[in-house]
Fold these 2 entries.
Entry 1:
Amino acid sequence: MHWGLVFGLIAAIASYVLIYHTTFGFAARVAGGNIRAAKIVGLSVGKLILTICFLAGAAAGLAGMVEVAAVQGRTNANLAAGYGFTGILVAFLARQNPLAVIPVAILLGGISASGGLLQRRLGLPDASVQVLQGIIFVFVLASDALYGRIGFLKGK
Amino acid sequence: MADGTIGLWTVPLAVLGGAIRVSTPFLFVSLGECITERSGRINLGLEGTLVMGAMSAYGISYVSDSPWLGVLAAGVAGAALGALHAGICSLPRVNDIAVGIALMLFGTGLAFYLGKPLIEPTAARLPAIDFGWWSEISQVRAALRINVLFLIGIALAPILYWAFRTTRWGLLVRTAGESSDAARAMGYSVLLIRLRATMVGGFLAGIGGSFLSLFYPGSWNEGLSSGQGVTAVALVIFARWDPMLCMWASLAFGGAAALGPALQSVGVTSGYHLFNAAPYILTLAIMIITCSPKRTLTGAPAELSITR
């Protein structure tokens, strides 16, 4: 265990509060939902997008800091290859909810970490984890097509 | 220019050679993505397709001793991945960008998984045509050793430009990309057009991958592609969805990528990694100069999920 997880948890909770419990977050959700409506009610969409991009970049930079300072302990050229893309997919799987990102990210991290075990115990190549992750992502994203089609899951 | 030494002329020559060598995968992937995006869909998975193409080309070339069969296999593998992307995206409410990233991970993972036994052996490589026979200088000869795939790619750009403008097929792809309602009203299946366009795009991206493993750098390992697939997708936006501009953008990108090693070879070693960033700086600079807050991207297909 290292302090990176604490950073991640705090960042997730902070962005949850920011998106769902502040005026700024509400404005951002309006702009994300319908950009024309946001412009009509007088929100400065450009400024919103820019600020959100700054925050997103800051969060990604924090992840890089944790990777260097707590996991690797040093920098090298091929550090953290692919975390960015997986991160985008984690956000998709969590349906853009910062609190849901926490369990999804932990699940995906667990699958990645199981790579070493698969390699030692079953003699599988280390890329099998990547294949598994790819298959999971493809199936979960494709299941978006079932959204609202299954009776007992329909809810309100 | 005595004794075959050409001094500082090495730099532009190496940039030219680099533009020819490095740009071929960019050329194929960006032309393929251009077709896919013109039909109204973004396939971000071309990075995975590229790596998968490189692996299958190397494997088939190793087994059959025929590099051209390897190129064909790479294209077929790419078309299969394209069909997978198009098939999943045909389902309602599925986000093509997210599926693309998922297929990128899946494709690279699968290529590494299947390609493990291919790291050691050497496969038959693609031949190069020597266009520098008239020159005594070795650097000129090296720069002008051109692969046939590069020539095919260069020829493909004007053909696509012409096909998009004048052929029935090109018009249909553009209709599906600009207004799916219009295509449907004409009685064509938009999903089928996009399936075909994505498969052709995957086919071309696979061929781009075969260039990586069969010509330059010319071997199969897991560090083969350093994000060329993703970069080529960005180049399509940079080139405003125009096949001819895609070609020029790929060439400029390849040339800029060769700047760092070229300067190093004449002794300019300070800032080597900074010069390696030259293609990205160039792309960013042109994007910033040509964009405007007053209008959206010109030439963007109206059905793309980023413009809709």
Note: Chain B has a mean pLDDT of 86.
Entry 2:
Amino acid sequence: MVFKAIIVALIATCCTWWFSHSITRTWLYPIWSGFLVGLVMGQPLQGMMIAAAINLPYVGFITAGGSMPGNPMFAGPVGTALALVSGMDIATATTIGVILGSVAVLSWNAYMSINALWVHAADKYLAAGNIKMVRVCNYLPSFFVSLILNGLPALLIVLVGKSFGDWLMTFPQWIMDLFAIAGGILPALGIGMLLNYLGKKKIVPFFFLGFALAEFMGLSTMMITAIGAIVAILLYNFQGDQSKKVGA
Amino acid sequence: MAELKKSDLVKNWLLGYSGETCYNYERLQGLGNTNAFVPIIRALYPKEQQAEELKKYLIFFNTEPSWMGTVIHGITAAMEEKRANGADITADEIISVRSALMGPMAGIGDVVSQSIAYPILAGVCIQLALAGNFAGPILFEVIYKVLMLTLGYNMYMMGYKRGKAAIIEMLQTGLINRILEAVSIVGLMVVGSMTVGNVKLDLSFLDFTWTNELGAVTLNIQTGVFDSLLPGLLPLGTVLGVWALLKKRVKPMTVILFCFGLALVLVGIKAIMGAY
């Protein structure tokens, strides 16, 4: 268990300490980071489903300039680990994930603030002509910051999270219902955020088209993606024709 | 004459992916970019000049670093090569080209990576994963990385070969925006479909029975009212409600509190109905 806990802690560390986006870019998202945690903990199927549920409210997650409306890099691995050791159901996992992700905005802010120190160290090394140490400053210190802020909580969750689950079981039914109902509502946040980014007036009807195809005709998301791609290509082609005419 | 080899360019492109390893509020990707440009500077300048040349990267810099913004590094590498060979390009010129491009490339790159590619992929893959299909996370990882690295590499090389003209052309013709708008449609349809089955608001606990002289009358608010009006009305309404809040610039964190508030009200109603 200790070995598993250490690996999970390292995964949680690298979800924030992006040593190379060629690897870690997808670790921002619970569907992948939580799945990795599930694999390590020997429960890939359950871990994958919990990770996907935790990812739902973060479907519209967009960061710009380092500001975050939540912290899925913490919620993904730590939430999945917690749900697995404490035997949580999927709707509750979504809620716990959102709570973890909201609180952990603080640890993200701490990470982004503390790391400025290493930039100042790099300034000094570069002034002294020591390029090698500049590179060390880029990689090494932020690893330890993330290890403390993200890895350590993940380690503790795997080791002692089960007692949290037992404690959760002693909650009255109405609190458990509250978590489950909130878990059903919170995915609306991810969808709403994306609507807010993409939803220019003239293309918003496509949101309702996607809804209608799924609700009234029972099509899967994969099928709707394919239909959407065809519609997008057609519209792009016709748009192109129009602008050519105007130009000519 | 100092020339950049293909391997120098590939190193520069790949090290660009460590641009956010020491991500921080003060200079964001500045330190990461300094690290990424070490191979370029080492290949072009004599040893005693290298640290000085690197200083132009250890400044505030932020763009979308993985999908589209790699073009800026490509453009810079080409400028460094010309500068090292005696062209009249000052360090300040390189800095100003980079800072002029970082905003537009952040805008386009964030739309491509975070509001189109990610939600479409996540939307499809989450549904697969929730259904117990391992293709969910695996497809997400593989497709995301293939798209990211292919685009990132080609943008970098385009920047290197054609310089800033390449990107300015793209920005001016509006071609990018037309493509993005078309692809946004797929994103909207995917999240529209995600409303079904993922957002759950069920009032079936509101189940009333009246007795009069004709017998018992029962009414279930969920099946008798909302489902017969329009199936999925409540989840759709919830999403539109969240959107309305966000449009009014309510913070996502506040919306989360609203969600818990709504859940609390529902539990309260359940309690009044005698569920506990």
Note: Chain B has a mean pLDDT of 93.
